[in-house]
Structures are given as structure tokens and as C-alpha cells.
Write a structure and sequence with these properties.
Layout (H helix, E strand, L loop, with lengths): L2 H13 L4 E7 L2 E6 L4 H10 L7 E9 L7 E9 L4 E9 L5 E2 L8 H12 L3 E2 L28 E6 L4 E6 L33
Parallel strand pairs: 2-5, 6-7
Antiparallel strand pairs: 1-2, 3-4, 4-5, 8-9
């Protein structure tokens, strides 16, 4: 266990007792779970405090836990080049409640929060330009949610007769395939080629 990370987690929890819900140290990685409304102040503290100096926001992403009441976690991954450490900040929310935007603390959060909203449907309040970034503007749903269908709702194709892009409901024209597991192209065989040459035990 990394004692420096454990000490850092205790230091941050003591400095922000109202904001930090939980500290987790797992596989030598420090994670903080914070109150949803306090995420901006926590990120500001982690960036500006002399013992932290997490001045780079590496990533913002979402995680979907459909069984929970607050099904989403927004995860911020931070890096301190000064102390050569990483930290993860997590915020829990539901489908309707927005998370305060971190763009005022880290300008790089702008596109990552747009991507998180586009793919997961997590809302961010006070975001300067919250619109789709990975999918098309007419896209229905959020494709990284667990309940999103594997084939999507619509498909996009260029219609040569209409000379434009058209949206159509997804149609699965192929029936379920019958796999031939004895074919070397379809799957693993019970007896692999060359096994017949192996010496048999008496």
C-alpha cells in the first residue's frame, strides 16, 4: 500500500470534511467520492493546494450503474506533475439532476463533459456549450447507457436516388446464424490439428 497516497487522502478529507463523502485506496490508486454540489470547490482545492497541485485534468467520463438510485458516476482523473501522482474524483448523480460543470476550473473539461453528456446522458449545469460532440444532432438516446440497444434505434445511409443522407429504423435482415463449430473458421475445435501426433498414455 502506498502510504503517501493514504496520507494524501487523509489530508484532503480533513481539509474538506463537508465535501468529501468517502476516500478509497485500491490497487495503489486514490479515489475521492464528493458531494455533487461541491465538485467545483473540491477540484479547485486539488488544483491550487500546495500539497496537491493536481493541475492537469486528464479525463472526464461517466459510469452507468442501472441498479442504483443514483445510477451515474462522473469520474474526473487528475494528474500532479509536481508530485508525480494521480487522483480520481467521483460524483454520483441520477438522470435528471445536473452536475456542476468543471469548465471554470479546467478549460479542458469542456469537450469531455460534452462527450459524457452525449454518450451517457449526464447533464452538466453552467456548461457554456452542452451539445452533442460524438453523435449526430438528430441522434436518439445515449449509446453508452446500459439499456441502449446493441444495434441502435436508427441507421444512417446515403440515398443515391434522393441525393441526401437518410435515417431509417434499424432492420436486421440476417437471421440468426447456425454456427458450425467443427469448422476451423467458426470456433475452437475439441481436437486441435496436430493432437493426433501426441503420444497416448497407456
Amino acid at each position: 500500500m502506498d502510504l503517501a497516497l493514504q496520507d494524501l487522502g487523509e489530508y484532503i478529507a480533513a481539509a474538506l470534511p463537508q465535501e468529501i463523502v468517502e476516500t478509497q485506496l485500491d490497487h495503489d490508486e486514490l479515489s475521492l467520492v464528493t458531494q455533487r454540489g461541491a465538485v467545483v470547490s473540491v477540484l479547485t482545492f486539488l488544483r491550487d493546494d500546495v500539497n496537491c497541485q493536481f493541475q492537469q485534468l486528464l479525463d472526464v467520463c461517466g459510469v452507468d450503474f442501472p441498479g442504483r438510485e443514483q445510477r451515474f458516476e462522473v469520474v474526473y482523473n487528475l494528474l500532479s506533475l509536481t508530485h508525480n501522482r494521480r487522483i480520481r474524483v467521483k460524483v454520483r448523480t441520477d438522470e435528471e439532476t445536473p452536475v456542476p460543470s468543471a469548465t471554470g476550473v479546467f478549460s479542458s473539461a469542456n469537450w469531455w463533459e460534452r462527450e459524457t453528456w452525449d454518450l451517457m446522458g449526464i447533464l452538466f449545469s453552467d456548461h457554456p456549450d452542452l451539445r452533442r460532440i460524438m453523435t449526430d444532432y438528430g441522434f436518439e438516446g445515449h449509446p453508452l447507457r446500459k439499456e441502449f440497444p446493441l444495434t441502435g434505434y436508427v441507421e444512417v445511409r446515403y440515398d443515391d436516388e434522393l441525393k441526401r443522407v437518410v435515417y431509417e429504423p434499424v432492420k436486421l435482415t440476417q437471421e440468426y446464424r447456425n454456427f458450425d463449430f467443427l469448422s476451423p473458421w467458426e470456433g475452437v475445435q475439441a481436437v486441435l490439428p496436430g493432437d493426433e501426433k501426441a503420444a497416448k498414455e497407456d
